[in-house]
Design a protein that fits this description.
298 residues; alpha/beta; five-stranded parallel beta sheet; 9 helices
Amino acid sequence: MKVVIPFSPDELTDIPRGFDIEVADATEHWPAAALDAVFYVPGYRFSSKVVDVIPQMPHLEVVQSLTAGVDHIRPSVPDGVTLCNATQVHHTATAELVLGLIIGAQRRLPDLVRAQDAQIWDSQMSSSVADKRVVVVGAGNIGRAVEQRLAGFECESILVGRTRRDGIHGIEELPDLLPTADVVVLIVPLTNDTRGMADAAFLAAMPEGSLLVNVARGPVVVTDDLVAEVSAGRLRAALDVTDPEPLPAGHPLWSAPGVTITPHVGGASTAMWRRSYHLVSEQLRRLSAGEPLLNVVT
């Protein structure tokens, strides 16, 4: 069974017999034999090349993404091919970034770095993370990892998922939760239901001075509506993703007051690789044993 991965097979552990592993990344090296793949792992850094090859694989059964979001891969996956995401690969790194963005925004770290560059002693009082209410929209692995890390900061965190269940509020409760939030964190996949979720009405429901953190996908937020709120100084934002992306030079978000921007690096830390190798190894074991695969995207 042909398996195509973008990293050395030496990183995999306890791989059952019967797999012919080919190292190939369509952005750099793509031998003809790679088209015989039954199990394909696209390279982590997105390029259209890594998905353009998918429809050319006649024997393909499984596509295992190395990213938590799969909106860039899903349109290229033919019917009958199983698509799996890598949500548990990135929960640690993304949760770390969420905490960093919240702390940075609350404690004015971007302003203080700029003050340091200008050799200005800026000792204004800042806000805190402690005693704040954080509404986390998205109750998957990343949302739960954020909740766990917030627990040590003496703040209240509230998880919101698609459906209401023990310890998790349903999405239908969001209009009542937003006006009570000091911080709103978006960690949802990009779907027809979530595209444009944070629109003018959503943002208007957030209290003045509150913080929107988006580590989901840029189009989850209506950019023009967010620009209007932050330009007026009513809301603040910390964005790891934007729409458009990359954010072009001269875009008003770059210079809007109270906005911190990172270039879509939520999962891009050294923590992802060990978890990626473990996930692919486990998926191959399950495939060999005829067991259900992890993280199947519906």
